[in-house]
Amino acid sequence: MPEISIIVPVYNVVSYLEKCIASITSQTFTDWELILIDDGSTDGSADIAGKLHDKDTRIKLFSKPNRGVSSARNLGLDLAQGKYVMFVDSDDICHPQLLEILYTAAESDTELAMCNYSRFQTEPDFIKIEGCYPEKLKSRQEIYQSLILNNILHPPVAKLYLRNIIERHGLRFPIELQLGEDVLFNLSYLRNISRGTYVNLPLYFYRDTPASLSKKIRRDYTDIQLRILTEKLNFIESQNIKFDYTPYAAGIVTDIALSILRSDASNDEKRESLNQLRDHRIMDYCKLKGKFMHVIFANLVRTLPSGILIKGIK
User: Of 71, 76, 143, 274, which one has the fewest beta carbons inside 10 Å?
Assistant: First the structure.
């Protein structure tokens, strides 16, 4: 059995897929299986995946009707055989030493090994890493703080998960969501571990594609963001995590409110979304902490009539 199962959902990424897979096949750590889940691609992505599958027996290709990224990742979990599981998005690129470094970290009595990531639009240059000094995280609180402070709580990429923990607790991505499903999976995983390792190196490269740079806001954006916020707050309360959201709350409220106000939703929909935000308990954390402009704007959201906000922010 391979040590690491790498799960890559594939959907209409013909321009990027070959480079993504090449960054995996060129890893310095070689004991892995690559599980490609073609989620009903229509642009030739499946043909590329099939050709690469024929060249390397470690690459396995499975095709299914289009059901979204969560469904594809869940099928990958059903098929995985490795001790560890890693998720990679099909338009991203891995540093050649990503698996080697995270595997070494994971083997030192840890239940989640993670690193940082870097965003790119043109192809990144890789430098050889001669040494690194992983940070041992000895409690669920330390793991959560590291994920939050390093801005890596949400994505499932750039992490090595223990597959036996995923299977023992029946963890899967919620298929009813098309946004935010990753952070809910991560929170479910965190509830079942107490030891982690963080490598402060950007070993994973996230591609800023035209789709990822799009400013279009989903109509269910507010519902999803508030559900995620609720899950985060429930997590820190139920797990006795000593983490103060007060310095971050005004910024969170500002980001959500501006996304609502700049969306293409109707004014009635915007009013409803703003009311949902005002009623959420994240507002209770909006004190005189955080960036000054965020604090001011969060208080405007709390106090100004929706019509004035809608008219004033385009």
Answer: 71
